[in-house]
Design goal:
428 residues, alpha/beta, Adenylosuccinate Synthetase, Chain A, domain 1, Adenylosuccinate Synthetase, subunit A, domain 2, Adenylosuccinate Synthetase, Chain A, domain 3, 12 helices, 33% helix, binds guanosine-5'-diphosphate, binds 6-O-phosphoryl inosine monophosphate, binds magnesium ion
């Protein structure tokens, strides 16, 4: 009677989509509970890649019920574009339901995202521009509009008009920007309200009922622990809680109903957007990882910053999430290197530090302490069992376990469902 949470252990893009799609084959329900269209989860089926942003990664399994939970900031434009694209491919899809409590993203949130970023100048965060921060700002400020507010067209119209009037003041006074096309936005969203009706549910109830009935429920994290608004590298973070604790409120269930936590963890480290990155390789080795791993954003297309595996990050994330097992992804990308490095500790001002620094200024002063291991030469993308991996690849996996203190239960050696090695059954 407990759900399985799948979180990102690093700064996002760990391969959560691939692992969730793989596990979804055994799940009855997949639930997104935070973030929004800033996520880009790649699922490869029969060699074909699909990038999912708002729709849960269980959707390509036709027997899975997919839930967009109350903690998500929901952009109807993106949602329908994604639905249309998936349907046009003729793939049988699982059902999708959207929470009546989810906050709506409007065009002014996306516009303000860009304007705030521009105003930050050199201190910009490098957001995805999807309006995530401004939508969560309205939610926390208690002025946001939710999916349930779309039920009655005339009250939705007047609340949205009032909100547009307020946003026009901000746009004009803070940024000197032209006013919004209020009538256009209202008309567009009244159309979405009609189209969305069949998808809307009290999703907390659906998730709870599924768990009580002993169904297998998978909680799909977006972003990663280091992007958490409280626990990440603030202010270079997103505006939600991509940790297991956040999934309970974001799905509308009690925290005790989340049992096992799988931390999807890249065999190296990447980051998009700004902020300190202790093991970053701003050199030819980083470029080599980027090219072999196709490390370009699934949402924005930006090149990802690449670096060695950072065990301090993953150890910290394991503590924050109560991670019970890791899914180590993209191990195949590290093939062909003479030697590989794994960061096992940080040294700041000559002293080894405990835990993870709260301030990005302190983090920027940290130097990595590396364990150096020999690489392997062969292509491991065809391996399907752990024993079949080269000795040095097995040694690398064991080093990850040693540094993080968490068992590696799954090893991923390629983007496809089949390219998965299960060492210890999860969601049995
Ligand atoms: P997510 O946001 O955590 O779902 O990750 P992304 O989809 O943004 O980025 C992960 C990328 O790695 C995608 O292009 C996946 O298709 C790809 N991928 C996932 N697992 C593996 C793997 O084990 N090996 C390789 N080579 N690619 C992988
Ligand atoms: P998935 O789910 C990687 C990063 C952005 C930026 C910061 C804030 O694919 O792992 P935001 O638009 O959320 O206000 O941007 O967070 N970011 C991600 N990085 N993967 C993601 O999602 C991300 N979602 C947001 O690059 O640094
Ligand atoms: Mg991604």
């Amino acid at each position: 009677m407990s759900g399985l949470a799948v979180i990102g252990s690093q700064w996002g893009d760990e391969g959560k989509g691939k692992i969730i799609d793989y596990l979804a084959g055994k799940a009855d329900m997949v639930v997104r509970s935070q973030g929004g269209s800033n996520a880009g989860h790649t699922v490869a089926v029969n060699g074909r890649k699909h990038a999912l942003h708002l729709i849960p990664s269980g959707v390509l399994n036709e027997n899975t019920v997919n839930i967009v939970g109350n903690g998500v900031v929901f952009d109807p434009e993106g949602f329908f574009a994604e639905m249309d694209a998936l349907e046009s491919e003729g793939i049988p899809l699982g059902a999708v339901f959207v929470s009546d409590r989810a906050h709506l993203v409007f065009p002014y949130h996306r516009l303000l995202d860009g304007l705030y970023e521009k105003a930050r100048g050199e201190g910009d965060i490098g957001t995805t521009g999807k309006g995530i921060g401004p939508a969560y700002m309205d939610k926390i400020e208690r002025s946001g509009l939710r999916v349930c507010d779309m039920e009655d067209a005339s009250s939705f119209r007047s609340r949205l008009e009032a909100q547009i009037e307020r946003k026009n003041l901000v746009m004009e006074r803070l940024f000197g920007a032209p006013p919004l096309d209020g009538e256009g936005i209202v008309g567009q969203y009244l159309g979405y309200a009609e189209r969305l009706r069949p998808f809307v549910r009290d999703t907390g109830l659906l998730v709870h009922e599924a768990l009580m009935a002993g169904r297998k429920v998978l909680f799909e994290g977006a972003q990663g622990s280091m992007l958490d608004i409280d626990l990440g590298t603030y202010p270079y973070v997103t505006s939600s809680h991509p940790v297991s604790g956040g999934f309970a409120t974001g799905a509308g269930i009690g925290a005790g109903l989340i049992g096992e936590v799988i931390g999807v963890t890249k065999a190296y480290t990447t980051r998009v957007g700004k902020g300190p990155f202790v093991t970053e390789l701003a050199d030819g080795t980083g470029d080599r990882i980027r090219e072999i791993g196709h490390e370009y954003g699934a949402t924005t297309g930006r090149p990802r910053r690449c670096g060695w595996f950072d065990g301090v990050v993953v150890r910290y994330s394991a503590r924050a999430n109560n991670t019970s097992g890791l899914a180590l992804t993209l191990l195949d990308v590290l093939g062909g290197f003479d030697e590989l490095r794994l960061c096992k500790g940080y040294v700041r001002r000559g002293k080894r530090i405990e835990g993870f620094p709260a301030s990005v200024d302190a983090l920027a002063e940290c130097e990595p302490e590396y364990e150096v291991l020999p690489g392997w030469k062969s292509d491991i993308s065809g391996c399907r069992d752990f024993d079949g991996l080269p000795e040095n690849a097995k040694g690398y996996v064991r080093a990850v376990e040693g540094i993080t203190g968490v068992p590696v239960k799954i090893v991923s050696v390629g983007p496809d469902r089949e390219q998965t090695i299960v060492r210890s059954e999860v969601f049995a």
